[in-house]
Amino acid sequence: MFSHAFYNVVHIVGIVLVMSALGATAIHALNGGTRQTNRARGLVAALHGTGVVLILIGGFGMLARLGFRHGAMFPGWLLVKLAVWVTIAALLFVPYRRPELAKPVYLLLPVLGGLAAYMAIYKPL
Ligand code: HEM
Predict the structure, then answer these.
(1) Distances in Å between the alpha carbon of 68 and those of 3, 30, 74?
(2) Per-residue b/e over 46-56, b at no fewer than 16 CB within 10 Å?
(3) Candidates 11, 87, 91: which one to mutate for ligand 1, based on the most atoms within 8 Å of Cβ?
(4) What are the tens digits of pLDDT across the range 11-41?
(5) Which of 13, 52, 97, 115 is most buried per CB count within 10 Å?
(6) Which ligand 1 atom sits closest to the C-alpha of 4?
């Protein structure tokens, strides 16, 4: 049985993978790069996908170690984190489709990460 600490490491590795993939893609698009000219596109997509899955495994693993009962209602703080997770999972497609949004996407990353961290650590809802 894996510990809360183990799942937390998995969670944070996932966050690092997703944020680095999104940052790289946003800055490439900001400099006029396209999906076609990004030679690391496959690598970035693979690491982003892996990160999204690791966040989920780590997050629900910690939730189980916190004694969260299966089938119970999700508390507000967790619903906000799930919304952040869905957003950072979908954001990879935005910079190349809407290059004018590449900079806002880049600036949004610390806001989303900070919001998810705040929800996890303070659980205000
Ligand atoms: C599927 C979505 C997610 C779930 C189920 C989830 C769940 C959790 C849980 C249960 C904890 C531990 C809280 C505790 O020990 O009291 C946690 C901690 C944390 N989560 Fe998430 N989370 C999710 C998404 C995210 C995302 C998307 C981010 C950032 C982008 C994030 C950032 C953090 C941080 C920074 C911590 C604190 C770690 C620490 O205290 O050392 N989480 N999360």
Answers:
(1) 14, 42, 9
(2) ebbeebbebbb
(3) 11
(4) 999 999 999 999 999 999 999 999 999 999 9
(5) 52
(6) 15
